[in-house]
Design brief:
With about 375 residues, this protein is mainly β. It contains 4 helices and 23 strands.
C-alpha cells in the first residue's frame, strides 16, 4: 500500500492543476483522491484499496494448508554410445532433507529405481551404466521432502531412444546459446549456433539426418543436403528462421538450459547433449574434437577445431573468395573448385554444380547473391549493373 500511496502523492499535484482532467469523464480532483478508498459510480465500482484487500482475502482463502511439495524442473539426459546414460534434474524443496530418485525402465520392462545424488536446492544426477546401446529407456524423477511431501515429474515418462545401428560418427562439437557480440551469420546477425564435427574417416551426407533441441521431437529440423567431409566442421544458426538459408534451423537455443541432439532417418541417436544456464558470449564444446568431456571453452571456435596448435593459434579455415566482387561482367571466379549452389537474397536457387571454379552470372539481375558450398562455407557477392 505504501508504494501506491507514494505514487498517488506524486501524481496528485499534477491532477489538481490539469485543466483537461475533468473533461474526459467529468471527474475532478476530489474524485481522484476518493477513488483510492471508495466506489464513485459508473465504471469505478471499487475503491483501489478495498479492491486489493478483497483480492488478498480471496487468494488467502484458496491456499491449501500444508507444506509445498518439491519442485522438479530442468530434467535432462545425455546418452553416449558406451552403454552409459547421464540424467539430471533441478529440485527445490521447502523442507530438508530431500531424497531424489530416478524411476526408469529398460525396453519397457519393470520399473527400477536409482538414487540421484546432489543436495539442497541443486541439480541431482544419476548415471546408468551397462544399458545396451540398442535398448530404449523411459524415466521419471521422484522427489521426497523432509516431511514426506512427494512430487513425480513429468506426468508421462520421458523416452530415451537407442543409439545402436549404422550411424555416422557425428558430434555436437561446440555450441553457443547466448551470442551477443561474438560471431555473426551471413546477414550480420548475432544468432545462437551449433557446430557439428565429422569424426568419421569418410564424408557424411547430412540430408537424411535431423537436428533438434527437444529429445521428444527428434525430427524437429532436417539437415540440408550437404556432405560434411571427414574431419570437417559445419556451423548451423539456431535462430528459428529457416527461411534465411539452408543452415538456419527452425528452433532457437534456450540460454537457461535445454538439449541438443542429432538423429538418423530411423530416429536412432547419433549424438546428444544437455546443458544448463549459459554465460553470454561463452561457448561450450568438447575438450578436443569428438571427445566425451564437454567444457566451457576459453576461445570460441565455430567451424574450426576445438584444439589449439602448439603455438596457441586456432587452426585456420579454408577461406573461399570470389573475384571480381562486386561483379560487373558475366562471370565470377572462385579461389578453388567446389561443389556449390548459388541463391538470391530472397532464397531462390540460381545455380547448382560440382567442381565449379567459374560461375556464369550473365542472366542474374543486379543484387546480392550467396554461394553455399557442400562443406557448409558461404560467400556473398554483388552483381551490379553495367553503366
Amino acid at each position: 500500500m505504501q508504494a501506491i500511496d507514494d505514487r498517488k502523492n506524486m501524481i496528485a499535484p499534477y491532477v489538481a492543476i490539469d485543466p483537461y482532467y475533468p473533461l474526459d469523464y467529468g471527474y475532478d480532483y476530489g474524485d481522484f483522491m476518493n477513488s483510492y478508498t471508495a466506489a464513485i459510480g459508473a465504471h469505478v465500482k471499487w475503491g483501489l484499496y478495498p479492491y486489493l484487500e478483497a483480492r488478498k482475502s480471496s487468494m488467502l482463502a484458496q491456499i491449501e494448508p500444508g507444506t509445498m511439495t518439491p519442485v522438479i524442473k530442468y530434467i535432462r539426459h545425455q546418452r553416449q554410445a558406451v552403454q552409459q546414460i547421464t540424467l539430471s534434474a533441478f529440485v527445490e524443496a521447502h523442507a530438508s532433507p530431500v531424497t531424489v530418485t530416478l524411476l526408469y525402465s529398460v525396453d519397457g520392462g519393470v520399473i527400477l529405481q536409482q538414487t540421484m545424488t546432489g543436495g539442497g536446492a541443486a541439480t541431482f544426477t544419476a548415471i546408468l551404466n551397462g544399458v545396451p546401446d540398442d535398448a530404449s529407456v523411459s524415466y521419471r524423477v521422484m522427489a521426497v521432502a523432509g516431511a514426506g511431501e512427494t512430487s513425480i515429474m513429468p506426468c508421462e515418462p520421458l523416452y530415451i531412444r537407442p543409439v545402436a545401428g549404422d550411424t555416422p560418427l557425428l558430434y555436437i562439437n561446440e555450441f553457443m546459446a547466448d551470442n551477443e557480440t561474438t560471431v555473426t551469420d551471413e546477414y550480420g546477425n548475432y544468432c545462437d549456433w551449433i557446430e557439428i564435427y565429422n569424426g568419421d574417416d569418410e564424408g557424411v551426407f547430412l540430408g537424411d539426418l535431423y537436428l533438434t533441441d527437444n529429445f521428444s521431437i527428434p525430427d524437429k529440423w532436417q539437415l540440408p543436403d550437404f556432405i560434411l567431409p571427414a574431419g570437417g566442421f559445419m556451423v548451423f544458426w539456431a535462430d528459428g528462421t529457416p527461411a534465411l538459408g539452408l543452415r538456419h534451423t527452425s528452433f532457437k537455443l534456450d540460454k537457461d538450459g535445454e538439449e541438443i541432439g542429432i538423429y538418423s532417418a530411423g530416429m536412432l541417436v547419433i549424438d546428444t547433449l544437455s546443458f544448463g544456464r549459459q554465460t553470454v558470449d561463452i561457448s561450450m564444446g568438447r575438450r578436443s574434437d569428438g571427445a566425451e568431456e564437454i567444457i566451457s571453452l576459453a576461445i570460441v571456435t565455430p567451424g574450426r577445431s576445438n584444439s589449439l596448435t602448439s603455438a596457441g593459434v586456432i587452426i585456420a579455415d579454408r577461406k573461399l573468395t570470389a573475384w571480381p566482387n562486386p561483379a560487373t561482367g558475366d562471370f565470377i571466379r572462385l579461389s578453388e573448385s567446389v561443389d556449390c549452389r548459388v541463391y538470391s537474397a530472397g532464397g531462390q536457387l540460381m545455380f547448382a554444380g560440382g567442381e565449379v571454379s567459374v560461375i556464369d552470372i550473365s542472366r542474374y539481375a543486379a543484387g546480392l547473391y550467396i554461394i553455399v558450398t557442400s562443406d557448409g562455407r558461404t560467400l556473398k557477392f554483388m552483381r551490379v549493373s553495367k553503366h
